[in-house]
Amino acid sequence: MIFAAAGWGVFWGSAIWARQSEGWTPSPELAYWISTPLALAGFLMAIFTIRSQRSWLLFVSVPLFANGFLVILPWLLPGAGGLHGESF
């Protein structure tokens, strides 16, 4: 969950900066390139911590969904350009 919090912090920090700033702001692609490796690391760590008990899946599902959504976020936001520079 630490990686998910750091990735979401980068994303929302850049979004707030872009909203409040009148001068130069970082591009959304920069936020994605910083937050995606954090999300991938957190997603892999969550997968590796899955144990065979059913109750453990409830605990692991929170970081799985938080990191997984952060990974696919560039492709969900319209006009963000995604990671490949494509405009939707």
Describe this entry's structure for a reader:
It is a single chain. The protein is mainly α. It has one domain (2-76). It is built from three helices and no strands. The chain has helices spanning 2-20, 28-48, 54-76. The model has no long low-confidence stretch (mean pLDDT 79).
Q: Number of helical runs?
A: 3
Cα-based radius of gyration, to the nearest Å: 15 Å
Q: What are the secondary-structure elements, in order, as H or E?
A: HHH
Overall SS class: mainly alpha
Number of strands: 0
Q: How many domains make up the coordinates?
A: 1
Strand content: under 5%
Mean pLDDT: 79
Question: Uncertain regions: pLDDT < 50 for 5+ in a row?
Answer: none
User: What spatial form do the alpha-carbon principal axes imply?
Assistant: elongated
Instruction: Work out the helicity level.
Output: over 70%
Distance between the ends: 30 Å
Largest sheet composition:
none
Summarize the structure.
This protein is mostly helical. It has helices at residues 2-20, 28-48, 54-76.
Keywords:
88 residues; mainly alpha; 3 helices; elongated
